Amino acid sequence: MNSTVINLTIALCFLLLIPGCTGKAQSATWLEGLAFSWTSFNHRLSHLEVRLDQDEAELGLVGGTSTSGIVTVLPSGCDPGTCTEYPFYDDATMWVKWGKATTKAQFAHASLEVIATPDGGSASTTAVFDRRIKGDVTAILQGLRLSTDYALAGGDACYTPANGWLPTAMSLVIDEPVKTGKDEVLVEVTAKFEAGPTLEENRACLDEVLDEVQVAIQVDVLLVATKKSHESHTVSHYLAYEWNGDQIDPTPQPEPDQQEQSFDIAIEDALVGWSEIDFRFQQEGEERGAYIRSLSVMADSAGWASGHGSNYSPGTQLSAFDYEFSGVVRAVDVAAEVEGGTTDTLIDVLVDEEGIPQTTTMTLE
Questions:
Q1: Is 171 helix (H, G, I), strand (E, B) or coil?
Q2: Among 8, 114, 157, 167, fewest CB within 10 Å belongs to which?
Q3: Concatenated DSSP letters of 207-241
Q4: What's the CA gap between 47 and 117, in Å, rounded?
Q5: In the chain, where are the structural domains located?
Q6: Closest by Cα among 363, 258, 239, 362 to 303
């Protein structure tokens, strides 16, 4: 091919925007894992937020009134003796594990809200790439905002959902994206949230509405398209912590080595992230919901992935703790050098005058 033909081809690529001609590089930052650990005690789960930008993460966490100090005003006719709250303050360390690359792989984003119930909920949307899709498409979790501040399925009751729940099951599934056009894919997300009882007489009003739980989850999805390799790895494990029955000085709960949960990955320098996450808590012993002290979901391109939780809480612990975790890790060859790390920060529980959770900005470095 002579130089005249080459120059004409290049000109047509730019003037007519022929798909695939330019192959412009894109930069992307993605979520490999998230974690939190309360400083003082275990708590209900009422708000969890981790959302990524290119170089920053927005973080938020609330564990009910015992972390925010909010005083709950009960509706008329409700018995304070069965809806007891303990306004107090706690802070937490939050971690974000992230990856970043500049590559000729294609990226698109989607965000959608799912109302998770004990029976599950789903939502779908369309994600649009900036040019014709080349190769297969993988979807991973890019961030979330989980809030229990959502109306009960049966309407108003004495318990205030914004004060949180004790989860027994939490799952999030991002389905395989389906191409619906030359530059479009359909993204569907399903989620489930089950709560268990406190088994505490002074919180009977919570236990009475467990079948009516509805939790709003805003899910951010990153989609990557490339003709290079795409892999899928399923991981699962179980852990049970014993309890000596001592609320003040409970049995310690040592952290496991998450890197022991390994899988074989063929891609040397991969984008990795989660498309499915499933926690089941308190499957043994009394059917009590889980007060959470710490929770984490982590994956790494070296070939390990793990979910972990605990309820260790000297002074307030009421039970043993066990969990079953399963998830699906996606790995994609983006044909570029991948950098990343794990960044952590100590955050205060921030709520405005109306009790709406606020976020803390953390630089990814």
A1: strand
A2: 8
A3: HTTGGG--EEEEEEEEEEEESS-EEEEEEEEEEEE
A4: 16
A5: 27-363
A6: 258
> Token match 């899928």: residue?
232
Q: Residue 139: name the closest of 166, 159, 112 by CA.
A: 112
Least Cα distance to 136 among 101, 189, 179, 188 occurs for 179
Residue for token digits 């779908």? 124
Q: What is the pTM of this model?
A: 0.92
In this structure, what DSSP letter does residue 47 have? E
φ and ψ at 350, to 5 degrees? -110, 120
At position 238, the amino acid (one-letter code) is Y
Contacts of 13 (CB under 8 A, 6+ apart): 21, 22
- Provide the residue type at 333 as one letter: D
